[in-house]
């Protein structure tokens, strides 16, 4: 039962972390009014929530291997809660901005939980388990968008205090109740291998680089949409704060709830050795990941078209489909990561998860820039809806890069071969029947 308790504990911790991470989003209108922010400043604040996550995830993923997930997760939850409470009492915008930067590191808990869950589930279940953990955990952003305005109205200060206090309590519980690994030997092996050279080696393998950029476009988009959608529905369809939050919650909830299915399908395809594409034959997990990534690009283009119809019901429906594609992509990617690096899951997850958050920094700036243009070129209107198709265009090189790595001859050694600076001295450890 300990592995299921670990999954429950990690999922609860991630869910609360994401709720706190994006707790500002449903209150953006009230916050911007209180501090007198322009639309450009709103875009920067949304983006800034992700600034600390890339490097933070890389470091905490490695620290989870070295110190154990229960210690790292507990520490992060406690200090994030304290700074969330502090941000509710300030009147200076710049002090508020700095405190929310620190609160934004709540997102680094994702890679800690990935390592923790991987220490308890074998390769036949790890995709499903990681999907459940990440899916329900990520849904915290959608839950927050829906629940916080309902519970606190426009009183963002009270919301920050109560969610911060809950984070401190859960951090203490995580440290006391959690166990790092299924065996002491497994925990010691992870700790002994957690050297700086090993971190650099893992982070420069072709598989990690490809999946990092895949996560950049899928989960980075999730972060951007969680922060942007309440504002989008507010200014694009003149919705109230509560209604805009409810519309935005559709994306966060579908992304989270359906992410486990992405990991489960990856597990099933691997176990059954089922090809679903005429390319990348024998690389079952890679085929599924590629399908999910292509779906994200297509649905972003559809999002722009739907938005320009002015039909909010249609846009919410497309938002749900886009959330589904993003959730499946995230589940597929993190079914591959622990399978590829079973003994260095923390380091690999840290690299993939860290780079993945960078999309959450850049994409909101694209959205807010398009929202500020409001003009027409050659009969085409550039407005708040245009940002989605622009973001889709930036994802095409990532699709091509992953297609190159997913080729069977490359994919079979993608956890060993990489940039030559750090060599190929570590043995192949990926468990995939196609490697035989």
Automatic annotation (TrEMBL):
Which InterPro entries does the protein's record reference? MFS (IPR011701), MFS_dom (IPR020846), MFS_trans_sf (IPR036259), NO3_transporter (IPR044772)
This protein's superkingdom? Archaea
Domain spans labelled Major facilitator superfamily (MFS) profile: 6-411
- What is the topology of this protein in the membrane according to its UniProt annotation? Multi-pass membrane protein
Q: Which UniProt keywords apply?
A: Membrane, Nitrate assimilation, Transmembrane, Transmembrane helix
Q: Does the keyword field hold Ribonucleoprotein?
A: no
Secretion signal, residue range per the UniProt entry: none
What subcellular compartments does it reside in?
Answer: Membrane
- Bilayer-crossing residues are 7-29, 35-55, 67-86, 92-112, 132-152, 158-177, 206-229, 241-266, 287-306, 312-335, 347-366, 386-406
Q: Which PROSITE patterns match?
A: MFS
Q: One matching Pfam family, short form? A: MFS_1
The family classification in the record reads: Belongs to the major facilitator superfamily. Nitrate/nitrite porter (TC 2.A.1.8) family.
This protein is called MFS transporter
Source organism of this protein record:
Natronoglomus mannanivorans
Origin organism lineage? Archaea, Methanobacteriati, Methanobacteriota, Stenosarchaea group, Halobacteria
């Amino acid at each position: 039962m300990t592995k299921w308790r670990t999954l429950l504990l990690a999922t609860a911790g991630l869910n609360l972390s994401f709720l706190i991470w994006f707790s500002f989003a449903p209150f953006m209108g009230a916050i911007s009014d209180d501090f007198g922010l322009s639309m450009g400043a709103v875009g920067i604040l949304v983006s800034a929530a992700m600034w600390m996550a890339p490097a933070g995830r890389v470091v905490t993923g490695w620290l989870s291997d070295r110190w154990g997930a229960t210690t790292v997760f507990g520490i992060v939850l406690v200090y994030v809660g304290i700074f969330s409470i502090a941000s509710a009492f300030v009147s200076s915008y710049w002090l508020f901005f700095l405190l929310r930067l620190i609160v934004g590191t709540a997102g680094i808990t994702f890679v800690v939980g990935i390592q923790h869950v991987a220490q308890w589930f074998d390769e036949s279940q790890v995709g499903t388990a990681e999907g459940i953990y990440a899916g329900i955990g990520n849904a915290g952003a959608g839950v927050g968008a829906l629940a916080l305005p309902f519970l606190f109205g426009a009183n963002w200060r009270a919301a920050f205090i109560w969610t911060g206090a809950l984070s401190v309590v859960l951090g203490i519980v995580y440290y006391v109740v959690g166990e790092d690994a299924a065996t002491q030997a497994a925990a010691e092996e992870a700790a002994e291998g957690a050297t700086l050279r090993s971190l650099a080696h893992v982070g420069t393998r072709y598989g990690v680089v490809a999946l990092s950029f895949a996560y950049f476009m899928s989960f980075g988009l999730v972060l951007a949409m969680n922060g942007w959608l309440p504002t989008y529905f507010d200014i694009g369809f003149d919705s109230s704060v509560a209604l805009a939050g409810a519309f935005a919650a559709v994306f966060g909830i579908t992304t989270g709830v359906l992410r486990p299915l992405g990991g489960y399908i990856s597990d099933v395809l691997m176990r059954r050795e089922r090809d679903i594409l005429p390319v990348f034959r024998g690389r079952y997990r890679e085929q599924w990941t590629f399908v999910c990534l292509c779906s994200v690009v297509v649905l972003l283009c559809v999002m722009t078209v739907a938005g320009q119809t002015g039909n909010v019901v249609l846009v919410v429906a497309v938002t749900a489909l886009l959330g589904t594609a993003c959730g499946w992509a995230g589940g597929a990617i993190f079914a591959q990561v622990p399978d590829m690096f079973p003994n260095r899951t923390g380091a690999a997850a840290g690299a993939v998860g860290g780079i993945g958050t960078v999309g959450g920094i850049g994409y909101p700036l694209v959205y807010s820039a398009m929202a500020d243009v409001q003009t027409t070129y050659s009969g085409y209107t550039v407005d708040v809806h245009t940002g989605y198709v622009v973001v889709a265009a930036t994802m095409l090189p990532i699709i091509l890069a992953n297609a190159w790595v997913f080729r069977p001859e490359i994919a079979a050694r993608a956890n060993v071969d990489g940039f030559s600076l750090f060599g190929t001295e570590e043995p192949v450890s990926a468990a995939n029947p196609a490697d035989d």
